[in-house]
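Holo model, calcium ion. Inputs:
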Amino acid sequence: AKEQGGARFRRFTQAMNDDVTRRLAIEKSIRKGLENDEFVVFYQPRVDITTGQVTGMEALVRWARPDGTLVPPLEFIPVAEDTGLVVALGERVLRDACIQTRRWTDELGPLRIAVNISARQFQPDLLDRVQAALAESGLPPSQLELEITETTMMRDLPTSVAILERLAEQGISIAIDDFGTGHSSLYYLKNFPIDTIKIDRSFVRDVPGDEGDATIVSTIVTMGRNLSLNVVAEGVETDDQLDFLRAHGCREVQGYYYSKPLPADGFADWMRAALS
Ligand code: C2E
Ligand code: CA
Ligand code: CA
Ligand code: CA
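Output:
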């Protein structure tokens, strides 16, 4: 029995070492990727379905590896988050996205750029970093929205309120990302200076077929409208979803129905085609 336990223990520590080794390897290559500028920002349009106009876009990071592969964020953001590298990465995304949006403004209009902010970035010094990105790019604060999840906001409520109020004072918009998936969604609406709620894709996916989801989505839309918030439905892919959202007064949508996230050049081409 003792031997068996020992073997099991060795297997366990071996697995742990593998995991640690793997994470160290990922951490090292993220660091190198940052040095070599391998992270690129993709853009996905947000559309006002009452006017057909593009109101802005979300910045979504991709990792373009030297071997030509494009790594999706869910494969490296968690490690970047654990190691703290997400702060440097997020700062890069914020800066690039602001510069690009400013560059596009003359030709494509005053689009609003939405940038994801991870828990590690959501600290009091965020305001300085955001101001630096706005100053460097020349982008007006009214064209910047920060997407923050409920989980991030929940970690330290007094600090969250203080950070969000300072951002709001600067004229920067705040969106609650993945709305409805957290624990106290309504609390945030009452206590935080929120401009936008983004209904999580998990609720939108089975609309209109799933009655429960349909009720949840239409209720969020109505509540958001009554609170004068922008309500964005995420992950819209089909005509049926769009018809449902329109019928229930949802104003803005984002999803493959209009476009997948595109690299900067592709997004500009898509916009020109949409405008012509
Ligand atoms: P998110 O912020 O909820 O972003 C929306 C995700 O849904 C994106 O995945 C987008 O490509 C995907 N999506 C949009 N429309 C559709 C649709 O119609 N159908 C389907 N199936 N998917 C759709 P993506 O780009 O893989 O990003 C995944 C997550 O990674 C994001 O979720 C966000 O949490 C995180 N992320 C991405 N970029 C950044 C970043 O710059 N910083 C941080 N901290 N996190 C980021
Ligand atoms: Ca987001
Ligand atoms: Ca989301
Ligand atoms: Ca999400």
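The mean pLDDT is 93. The pocket of calcium ion (ligand 4) is lined by residues 178 (CB under 6 Å).
Archived with the compound record.
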